[in-house]
Amino acid sequence: MTGATFDRLAFEQTLDDVGAMLGDLWAVDEALKLADANHIRASGDAPVSPYARVGVDIGRHYPFRESVYIVYPEGEEPAGPFGSGGDLDKWEGSQAVVDQLAETGRDWGRGVAESIRSAVQRLVRPVPQTFQEAVELMRTDVINPLTTLVGDDFAMLSSHLSDWEGGAADQFADYFYNQVEIGVRNQAFAAESVCVGLAGSKAIVHLGQHSLMGLVLSAKEVLEGQLKQRQAEHQPHEMGTSDWLLLGATFLALVAAIPTGGGSLSIAAAGVAAAGATSALLEFGASQVEDGETSTFEALTAEDAQSQLFDRLGDITERVRRHWDDLEATMSELRGLITEVDSQHLLYPRRPRLADGDVSPGGFHHESQPA
Amino acid sequence: MGKDPDQPGYEASHDPGDPRPVGSGTEFGADLYALYRAGRVHFPEKAILYSQLTSAVHDFEQRVEFLRSSVGGEFAVSLVESIRSDLHHALRQTAVAMRDTGTALVQISTDYATTDLDATAEFNRLVNGHPGLFDTSTPHVPRPPSGDDPYGTPYEPPSLEAPEAPGWWLTEWMEDQAGGLLDDIEEGIDVGVETVQNWWENR
């Protein structure tokens, strides 16, 4: 599951299932508690007063029939063993109470599911593939042509420029033509920084979504186990547990591997490392699942499960928040570095004076000029 | 012999009356040719490339904005956008500088080529010796878009809403049908009970 693409529809359906099972488990336990509180479970001692035994259907996902005693006031015993109008009413009344509990549970469970849905909107809405597509587009449309089509001495002027003299000629050679190469490298680094930021975002989105999916699947597994156990034993018995992956340990190492210059402006050499960091972040989650931490979901009752759900949801959102903060700090460093590079005229070559017609024989002449 | 240096067939004309001391001799002519070739061919070629790169990075803004919005406006993605914006500015400045420098190199080289007879001859010899390089007009450099310009290729983002469960419409249809059927059955029972009651009362 963790290495695959997050399936939003499957998540929404699983969350619906969790809400429905939560409500069902609550209603089952309330019905059993109500029967116990009134000492009418047919498994206990038979009442002293006149009574009848009736079956009540409990539970929706894993239903079972519980026998309960219906106790009659003196003198109002049913005429037959079971089946007079009065008895039927009382049977319907017992079932109606259970059905009402089921409705209440269903509404409550739906409410819990909707609360979770609302709380995780920000985590489940992003589409990781759109981050990956953006990175691939930046590479194919910008980085690759930039680094392959703008070579050193692209205009074949290097062997001719030294023959030109004057201020405009020197400025053209030193600050424009000979700076194109470093500009290309730094532009490619800026483009790769965009990629690394988007790849990091994709990794965080992936982390949050897969952790969430793991959480709801575990919750469903535990709830389903509890409902099956109620069906088998007609009472709570033991805690249900399920382990799930809380991904993320690897992410910190990946973000730490993003080159941010270390205070140096020689970022051109960091381009390859940045590209490596981007690739590693894009791969995050697909291959580093084993490095993730696990967490345990355990619950005996619906209330336990609800409490666990919200606690674990808090763990996920906190972890995702921390990763966004880490990425933000790294992107701030990259942004600062690129701003510094720009201020040093190393992000693009300075526009030469000759491009504005600022040329005179004194400022731009050939070395063969007569003295 | 062409007079327009941006068109095929151009040749420089020596102007004996031009006294400017900017250079002389065949090497001067060869270096002028190098400037002309750069301005006529290589600089426009790279300016076009940079203009395309600028457009790509400008259009990319739509994706970054969509992605930023999809994660609730995380500041880390805002920083990505600010780097993209810096890159857009750098590429645009390079595109414009390449374009204008190319124009200036053609203008300077052809202007200086008229000042010295030997240089004029060498310049024209080299131009004529590479017809393949100059058999088309100087290419037009598309204007690289600024940040305020419309996008060249609008981005169609995917929906962020939860997908509908497959077959949900079929389920609803079946429920409607079943509901209608139950209504019919209940109505039939009511009619039947009423008929029996009428018969009982009137027997």
Count, helices of chain A: 10
**How many domains would you count in the coordinates of chain B?**
2
The Rg value of chain A, from CA coordinates, equals: 35 Å
Mean pLDDT of chain A: 83
The value of Rg of chain B in angstroms is 38 Å
The backbone outline of chain A, from C-alpha atoms, is rod-shaped
Secondary-structure element order of chain B, as H and E?
HHHH
Sheet with most strands of chain B: none
What are the segments of chain B in which pLDDT stays under 50 over at least 5 consecutive residues? Answer: none
What does this structure look like?
The complex is a heterodimer of chains A (371) and B (203). Chain A has 371 residues and is mainly alpha-helical. Chain A has two domains: 8-119, no CATH class; 127-366, no CATH class. In chain A, 60% of the residues lie in helices and 9% in strands. In chain A, helix 1 (8-37) packs parallel to helix 7. The longest helix of chain A is centred in the middle third of the chain and has 54 residues, at 180-233. The radius of gyration of chain A is 35 Å and the shape is rod-shaped. Chain B has 203 residues and is mainly alpha-helical. Chain B has two domains: 1-159, no CATH class; 166-203. Chain B has helices at residues 26-70, 75-112, 117-129, 168-202. Classes of the chains: A mainly alpha (371), B mainly alpha (203). Chains A and B meet through helix 1, helix 4, helix 7, helix 10 and strand 6 of A and helix 1 and helix 2 of B.
